[in-house]
Amino acid sequence: MQAIRIHEYGGQEQLIEETIEKPRPESGQVIVKQHATSINPLDWKLRAGYLQDMVPFEFPVILGWDTAGVVDEVADDVTDFQIGDRVFARPELTNEGTYAEYTAVDAHLLAHIPENITFQEAAGVPLTTMTAWQCLYDFADIQPGDKVLIHAGAGGVGTMAIQLAKITGAHVATTASTHNVEFLYSLGADEVVNYKKQDFTDVLEDFDFVLDTLGGEIQEHSYKVLKESGKLASVATPPDENQAEAHNVKAGFVWLQPVGEQMRAIAKLLEDEKIKPVIGHHYPLSEQGIRDAHALSETHHAKGKIVIDID
């Protein structure tokens, strides 16, 4: 099968297209013939070596941790999925990811793709939506009426977090550049702060929860808009404990853990059209396609998800 692998940490030039053996299912696994995958900041951060202490992979590494496709093989002990089923998942974080024609996935992490969702749309959902889910619900336990600020609302996590927060009944504010303001209102945001014209700390106050996707000064300034006993979850950098304590805020770093039950709950929301995928960019599964997709993701200016078309 064709796959894009890296053999050492470094720049986009480390992404190399190779022909390798198709995986075989181990106990509890299925093999997915992929129709699409997607790019996440996790991918290029791992490629560049920024996370090697946290995730010490052995080379070579196939990056990518979103899958959408059709079940091609099943292990003898798998009963919930059959050959031909349309499925999607965020697989476990291993060195055999999803920049490939086939990938092995633990069956308990899979969900069926709703009939109203394409493979490309499905590929853009698992990692970002489950990340938003675990920040909003597991970490913050947001409730109807809570005031929620989501930074970088036009990004992969942001677009799904806005929708999840709105169906929960929260009041949602988000930050964006000028050309994304109307788009984010269309997703349901109640307030959109154009960061090119306004400082969010000047116009927002008394928020219950902040979802930080950027880190740095944005994270530091976010304490100013939180009420006492508010909460801040970051998916960018671990918050400073002393700062959080000084502002009487619960702050923490959320590292996604794939959970099959959450994936299947997300699938039901998609089926019921309560949330929708936002796909902004498409690239092919090729050496140049993956390199270009990484380059776009590294700008932090991609709109919605970057999808890799495999079929």
From TrEMBL:
Pfam families in alphabetical order: ADH_N (PF08240), ADH_zinc_N_2 (PF13602)
Domain Enoyl reductase (ER) residue range list: 10-308
Coiled coil: none
SMART domains, A to Z: PKS_ER
UniProt keyword terms in alphabetical order: Oxidoreductase
PANTHER family with a match to the protein in the record: ALCOHOL DEHYDROGENASE RELATED (PTHR11695), RETICULON-4-INTERACTING PROTEIN 1, MITOCHONDRIAL (PTHR11695:SF294)
The protein's name: NADPH:quinone reductase-like Zn-dependent oxidoreductase
Source organism (scientific name): Alkalibacillus flavidus
Lineage of source species: Bacteria, Bacillati, Bacillota, Bacilli, Bacillales
